């Protein structure tokens, strides 16, 4: 009895240890030239057709195409950096050029650079701030930040406020690359003189020319309130399974205010919340209960850092942080992608590369560990 044994060699010897690197700006037109891949890899153009050359992306999407007549690498679609990579920078797409007979492959990567195609945007068209007339000069008031999908110098760089006699803007750098505006009281308020002010807050990016977005800041000047809300703790942590049903209670946040009447009534809101946080969670403004608003996905977001502000009826506020950790469940099967497979093998061949494949599992920990085997 004759037994034919096929060896799938996982440790491949590549044509080069270094990946070939290219760069292209997002939104570049379909069919645009990226590079001459054949020349850069030291291949003859005649080899491309005879050896069935093709480009294979790691994410199995057809972002690129190879012209077998010229060896040119061309864009197969318009690339949206924000859609591909979100806030991750640099935005790099990994791909391979695969040749047959003999089987050979070259690693390469394409960096998608950002263009200033998004303006800063405030999620709220109006920001309401209540300030007591007895508030000391120099007091700062937190305000919602703008969102900008661009990165680097094209992202949010500055805030300005419309000219007025009472306030100026101070910009806080959170340390994670995000800028938050704070309204600073520069001149005392008088409820009897002016009970309400309307200001325009403008967010500017660093593009050339810069893009901008605005929101209305409505300030209501109130009577004296001498106690601010106090949270029971500054940091709340909770773990939530990614398959938790929509509408489920997550946690209750509580703050206390020693004042009575309207000054002691507390309203809870999310502070500097991104669109993802607002889509995923909601907080009851009266009870402080946080509920799940949409499905969680560990493979997309592993944790949420939510800043919560408690504001009393007199406009004084305090904040705390809620850290929601998403717990992974085994909800993704392993994926096998075959890049190439040799259709025929000489009977006297030994240690011949017959197939090139990759496996991945989007789960984490034990749920994402895989074992490859050939059955029977």
UniProtKB/TrEMBL annotation:
Which keywords accompany this UniProt record?
Calcium, Cell adhesion, Glycoprotein, Membrane, Repeat, Signal, Transmembrane, Transmembrane helix
The domain of life for this entry's organism is Eukaryota
GO CC terms for this protein?
Answer: plasma membrane
Please name the Pfam families in this protein's record.
Cadherin (PF00028), Cadherin_2 (PF08266)
Give the record's membrane topology: Single-pass membrane protein
Name its GO BP terms in alphabetical order: homophilic cell adhesion via plasma membrane adhesion molecules
Name the SMART domains for this protein.
Answer: CA
Q: Which residues form the Cadherin domain?
A: 16-122, 123-231, 232-336
**Coiled-coil regions listed in the entry:** none
Query: Could you give a GO molecular-function term held by this entry?
Result: calcium ion binding
Predominant subcellular localization, coarse grouping: membrane
- Annotated InterPro entries: Cadherin-like_dom, Cadherin-like_sf, Cadherin_CS, Cadherin_N, Protocadherin/Cadherin-CA
Instruction: Point out the signal peptide segment.
Output: 1-15
The protein in question is named Protocadherin beta-14
- Gene designation: PCDBE
């Amino acid at each position: 009895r004759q037994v034919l044994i096929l060896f799938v060699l996982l440790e491949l010897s590549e044509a080069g240890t270094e990946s070939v690197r290219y760069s292209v700006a997002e939104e570049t037109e379909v069919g645009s030239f990226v590079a001459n891949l054949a020349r850069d890899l030291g291949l003859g153009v005649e080899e491309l057709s005879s050896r069935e050359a093709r480009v294979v992306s790691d994410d199995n999407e057809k972002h690129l195409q190879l012209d077998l007549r010229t060896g040119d690498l061309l864009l197969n679609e318009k690339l949206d950096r924000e859609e591909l990579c979100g806030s991750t920078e640099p935005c790099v797409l990994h791909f391979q050029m695969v040749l047959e007979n003999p089987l050979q492959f070259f690693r390469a990567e394409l960096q998608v650079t950002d263009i200033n195609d998004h303006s800063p945007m405030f999620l709220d068209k109006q920001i309401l701030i209540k300030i007591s007339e007895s508030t000391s000069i120099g007091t700062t008031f937190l305000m919602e930040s703008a969102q900008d999908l661009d990165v680097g110098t094209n992202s949010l760089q500055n805030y300005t406020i419309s000219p007025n006699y009472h306030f100026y803007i101070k910009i806080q750098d959170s340390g994670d690359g995000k800028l938050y505006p704070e309204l600073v009281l520069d001149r005392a308020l008088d409820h009897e003189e002016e009970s309400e002010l309307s200001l325009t807050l403008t967010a500017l990016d660093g593009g050339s020319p810069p893009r901008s977005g605005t929101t209305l800041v409505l300030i209501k000047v109130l009577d004296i309130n001498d106690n601010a809300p106090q949270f029971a703790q500054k940091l709340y942590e909770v773990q939530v399974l990614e398959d938790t049903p929509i509408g489920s209670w997550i946690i209750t946040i509580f703050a206390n205010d020693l004042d009575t009447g309207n000054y002691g009534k507390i309203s809870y809101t999310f502070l500097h919340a991104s669109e993802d946080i607002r889509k995923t969670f909601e907080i009851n403004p009266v009870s402080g209960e946080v509920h799940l608003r949409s499905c969680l996905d560990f493979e997309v977001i592993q944790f949420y850092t939510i800043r919560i502000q408690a504001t009393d009826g007199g406009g004084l506020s305090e904040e705390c942080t809620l850290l929601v950790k998403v717990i992974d469940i085994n909800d993704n099967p392993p994926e096998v992608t075959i890049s190439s497979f040799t259709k025929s093998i000489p009977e006297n061949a030994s240690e011949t590369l017959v197939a090139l494949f990759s496996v991945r599992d989007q789960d984490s920990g034990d749920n994402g560990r895989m074992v490859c085997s050939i059955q029977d």
